[in-house]
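Note to self: keep these together.
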Amino acid sequence: MLTKIVSIGNSKGIRIPSAILKQCNIDDQVELIVELDSIVIKPIKRDKRTGWAQAFKDMNNRGEDNMVLDQSVDTEFEDWQW
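Structure:
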């Protein structure tokens, strides 16, 4: 794919089509690597659970961490007919 270099303030940049960004799983940050005479743009791999610990603490602070199932429910399913 050919694309033009555009001016962005005192820098230069390129426009990357959203379909390519989606295909490469690129959201908001990338890693730029110079290899010989090429620029490589790589997505930053993030742990999908980043921020979960803080989110759970925040839920607890707001009192939103209640049990989904009532404690009186028989979780062994002994009296259930399948």
